[in-house]
Amino acid sequence: MTLTFAASMFYGKFGRSNSDLVCVQSMDGLLTVYNHGAVTLTQTLPNFLIPGPITYCSESDSFLVQNACFELECFSYQVLEASYVSHGSGSDMHGIADFTTRSAMEADWRISLTAMATHIAVSADFTTEDVNETSEDIYAVAERIVTVISCDGILKKQIFLGSIPISFQLFPVQQLQRGKSSSHMLVADSNGYVMVYCGTKLLWAFKLSFPPVALHLASQVSRCERLLVTLSGQGFVCTSYLGTEPPVQLIDANFCHGENITENTYSVNNSQNLGNELIQPLGLVQMHAEVSVRNMQLPKGGMRIPLEDFDGLHDPQHFTAQVFVSYSGAGRVENIQLSLAPPAPLECTQQTYRIASLGGGSDCTICIPLALFTRKNTCSVPADQMIAIAATYITRTGEPCNVLCEACVPLAVFCAAVPAIKSASHRVTLNTNRMPPQLCSLYRDIKFHSLLDSDCDNVICLRHSNGIHVTIIVSKKTGRYRLQSAHFGAMWIVARELIKRLCTYFEGDDSEQESFKVSFTDCLPIQDIFETIDRHHATRSRRETLSFELGSCTHQYRIIQKEVLLQVREKNPVSLARIYALLQGTTHKVNHAARGIKSVDELFAEARHALSSSVQMMLLLIFLRFGLENHEQRAFRSFLPPLVPEAYDQGWEELTSASLDFLLRSLVGQDLKRTQGACTNSTFIRARDTHKLKKNISLFCEWIARGFAVSI
To answer: pTM of this prediction?
Structure first.
């Protein structure tokens, strides 16, 4: 028998046994019953697709499970035993009995739930004076509905919920009448609301600060009854008192909140190993990267960089990165795959690396050198400074794992200092509350041009790899920094790096003045980003027109080919000179449309990077203009994303307009549920123009100026 990964488990007195048995459901739908470590039964569920909830009903001695047709099926344990028979009492080398199929397994009854079930529970069997009146009900929780079924498969009632449930529990209540008892339901949804139901009636509801992924009503904790224990998605455990009067007894919380479970040591008794040998915790692959501007000796026969792709300012040997990989566990881990995603226009000579074997311990750290370069005459402006590195590997138990790492690329990789350029069409002024330092002391790591003037204390000009210049002019009297360039988005990375370097420079200032602060007091340059959005949308529209033209030409080309074949098969064909001329003209049109799409794709990539960098600059000015905190900045980035996708049909304009429309409707006080449903169920339509998007961006900035906060 082949061992598979376990999906879930449950226990009960299967077959009216005297002791509890354990049933394990595998990922492939295999049920295995264990009795004190020995396998007594194994069976594969029919009509199985993915593992779902499964439980045991003691009253009918049956298993309850949902199949791939969204039907709740009931299998009697006697049917499971009858469908399989063991060949003697022998077992294989792993201690698992040898079973063979005798007949197909049939369900006692089945009922449709119309949706995928998330929880299946059986009401508690409470002891009463009249045992005959005691019965069990089956509760199947699906999407927005709870179905109550008797043990005989008869539908009793359905409870419709207003939201999607994520956790569920049945708990007993006090006896209302002699010989009768009932159970209440605890249902928690994705918004953090916990509701208490008695049948179809909602008794009570309250809201937690987080949506609980699991909940349990504890009978008694530290001599305090009716405590609700909930677990958040981040691993935090919360206890809440379920009652109208506060508890008298205090609760001792002798556990650490927010611990990482994967880092805690644990032990599991392995019955298949000798004695009481313990399974040690598995280690993790750790990784960090460093990007520097220095020379690097490349190995012989290793990475080769195309020197024709470089200009005079960018030497390929000066862009290096080092990735340090280590393994914290015992033993070795095999076949580690590293993947790199550098920000455009930065490229790597090798995108993937493979580590054949890595030993555990800090002494076995592997350093992988990377060579980075920027192609000559590139048209893109950097939209991000972070290089992403991912490591994937397989653990000793066969589980796939991945580790993500990010490293900041220095400004010297993207820019070099050149003589100042006076002409510029875009200007931004940043204000500070300190006397400005010399620019040479702030940009010591930048490679200066040989023709650069020696006096660069107040003015410095940085040139991107695509030839765009960004000039920084400092006013010593007012402490202002003016950034000017011919491209609005090209200033964002220089402005961000300037703010970062100024904060580092004044970090150790022990003066009694207020803390160092950078602000932007001018009007937001909304019109500049509007021009970038129009260029991006126009390029998308041009590409769509050429795609339609190419489709029409290829369709015409296929029709002409069929006509030529029909004429060739005729006994007395007519002259094909006109058809051949038409075929040649159509071929020319197809080639012309294909070349046009290729050129437009290059322009679209340039417009996409320009829009991304312009949004980055716009967000930076918004954050400085209104002094937003880090959590507010993350919220605004989700509604005005700087990442521009490569899609043509549903692009950045449609997604951003929908998200801003949702935000503005929620700010003005409209029904949030109605808005959310409309945004979720509606299909994005290709925007013919950008008027609605530009209007939403203007209203977005206006609401921020009024002081409205946004959180996610």
So the answer is: 0.57
